[in-house]
Amino acid sequence: MALFLIETPLPAQAAADPLLDSIADAVDAAGGELIEAQLGRTTGLAYTIAEHTDASVLEQELRDAGVPFHGLAEVRLVGPTLDELKAHRSDARYLVEWDLPTGLTLERYLERKRAKAPGYAKVPETTFLRTYVCLDMSKCLCLYDAPDEEAVLRARAAVDTPVDRVTPLEDGPIRVRA
User: Fold this and answer.
1) Do 58 and 32 touch, CB atoms closer than 8 A?
2) Angle between helices 55-64 and 17-29 (to 10 degrees)
3) Domain 94-168 is found in CATH 3.30.70.3090
4) For 39-64, what is each residue's pLDDT tens digit?
């Protein structure tokens, strides 16, 4: 099965639960599994990861459910394995988006990540949790646990990796169905 990023506008100042329920219902109806959803109020987006075998089936179920998503992008999980993530879903406090440079390949991205990852030790108050890299190499989403945005930026500087957007995430557990 593949993983897909679904970016959905959040309702202004309203509870996100009905939207997340609609996404979860659509993923279930498509025969997939909701892996996680992170809420970025400052960007006005819900970042949802779903596991499924067919993007077109998942996309159609989302449309049929009336979910107002911006698109569906196949992603690769970097960091923990999917089984490790499912067994231990650690909360993220910040999401970093990096619009990947033209010409960067997934292989080169992964090499770069492996080479630079030891630099995180220079910022022990920040924990890198996981990354989702869009397979079209448009961008990646990196999730961190950190006391504040400045600590996230120090961690990114320590691994010499750009930042296009930093989004604080709403407090609370990762949204999944049991």
Assistant:
1) yes
2) 130
3) yes
4) 987 888 999 999 999 999 999 999 99
